[in-house]
Amino acid sequence: MRSSILIAIPCALSLALVAPAALAAGPKKQPTKEEMQEAQRRYQRGRELYEDNDFTAALVEIRRAYELAPSYKLLFDIGQICYQLPDYPCALRSFKQYLDEGAGEINPQRRAEVENDVRKLEGRVATLKITTTRPGVEILVDDVVVGKTPLDTPVLVGAGKRKVTARVQGAEPVTRVIEVAGTDVVDVALEVGAGSTAAAPSASDGTNGPGAGPAGEDKGAGRHVPVVPWVITGALAVGTGIVGGLALAKSSEYRSQLDTFGATRATLDASYGTMKNLAIATDVLLGATAVAGVTSLILTLTAGPKGPAKAALVPVHAGVGPGSVWIKGTF
């Protein structure tokens, strides 16, 4: 590829500016004097940026010059900059447009060079045929708007992973990420609508939708959370806290009575008995709370999706024994 577009054709814009009659003969409107002067400034700035290897900024300036004073010669410059970026689809489009608009004015040697570049670039781009289930949908490729459906022409993209997004007001955006190689022609069908998702990707495009599952499965459905078991668990936890607090208070009272002179045996026995009973009750409630919590968790995890269909409950057996808590079931 040529090392410098603006060395190759340094007078591209100046030739266009001194020959307004040639522009008037074409389909594009003839630029005003002010527009040609602004285009000349843009062109010069683009040359400077290109020589500084700032290809992105150079492309913006040369494109702006072309919009102000259209000349097929500038399309050659644009194609060269796109090639350097590298943006092969842009380079291919620009070179083809250069050949079309230049027609017989391009000398045979230059035409042969550009046609050779076009053949090379055609092997480095893929073609996306993007369709949607409804018209007027805005299409973005790699977050850049390319138009609204139905698109007039297929979209050229560089090889690699490409993100295609369809968006329309009132519906969720639909996105597909596909991987393409040079010369690929890929049909991208996007289903756009309320609550819709992208059409299932084919095995050839190497993509999998997020959360892919069996056909007909409602991924948006949530689980049915069993409320009653969790309410019982919460009540048992509260009861455990209350009884445990009473047991601690009684234990403190019993120790205080032991240190009190003149406390009778009957008083000590009564206080100790109450403390022991509260401690046992705390242990039982704590065990029951643990069992209820585990049972509630299992019922939640095994519950089916919300809706009329009910998931079968897993049989669970739980109990509390002396110094132990047990739970039995099939998981």
TrEMBL record:
SUPFAM superfamilies: TPR-like. Residues 197-221 are annotated as: Disordered. Residues 197-206 have a biased composition (Low complexity). InterPro entries: PEGA, TPR-like_helical_dom_sf. Keywords: Membrane, Signal, Transmembrane, Transmembrane helix. Residues 126-190 form the PEGA domain. This is PEGA domain-containing protein. It comes from Polyangium fumosum.
